[in-house]
Amino acid sequence: MTSYLNVNGRQHAVEADPATPLLYVLRGELGLNGAKYGCGLGQCGACTVMVDGKAVFSCLMPVRALAGRAITTIEGLGDVTTPNPVQQAFQEVQAAQCGYCIAGMIMRAQSLLETNAAPSDEEIRVHMQPNLCRCGTHSRILRAVRSASDKLSLKGSPAGTK
């Protein structure tokens, strides 16, 4: 069955069963490999993307629930030459160790900073809690989110996407 998805500002016609998880469509149909398959149960956050600005586990989100909604993946934020502020902060703080969780972490941080550009440290911790890092770089991840927030507050701008 053909489904139409708005991913990173572009409309895509994809052939998928309506119950297919978004993660499978992103990786298998669209070649967007930033979101990772971790647990497949919505317990790790490696597959986190944004739907209508909200962080969601793409492994749990069926394609049928996404018609007319805006999906943003890590590929929609920026790239190596022009990272967005959140991606840049994660690079500067060296928040990644193995890197498997980082795309999901960045997407969850992005969703927070788009709604609250100056969160408290406690708000950052609570918002980032659903995403796991098995390497244990949580303190650097939190530092990266704080750094991005501080830079955005100084600029007076939202955490933009490309």
- Helical content class: 25-40%
**What spatial form do the alpha-carbon principal axes imply?**
globular
Strand order of the largest sheet: 2-1-5-3-4
CATH superfamily of the largest domain: Beta-grasp domain
Q: What are the segments in which pLDDT stays under 50 over at least 5 consecutive residues?
A: none
Kindly provide the radius of gyration, computed on alpha-carbon positions and rounded to a whole number of angstroms.
15 Å
The fraction of residues in strands falls at 5-15%
- Helix/strand-derived category reads alpha+beta
Alpha plus pi helix count = 5
Compact summary:
With 162 residues, this protein is of the alpha+beta class. Helices cover 35% and strands 14% of the residues.
Could you explain how this protein is built, in words?
This protein is α+β, with helices and mostly antiparallel strands. The chain folds into two domains: 2-75, Beta-grasp domain (Ubiquitin-like (UB roll)); 85-155, [2Fe-2S]-binding domain (DNA polymerase, domain 1, Orthogonal Bundle). It is built from five helices and five strands, in the order ββαβββαααα. Strands 2-1-5-3-4 form a five-stranded mixed beta sheet, with helices on both faces. β3 and β4 form a beta hairpin. α3 packs parallel to α5. The longest helix is centred in the C-terminal third of the chain and has 18 residues, at 138-155. The protein starts with a strand and ends in a 7-residue tail after the last helix. The model has no long low-confidence stretch (mean pLDDT 94).
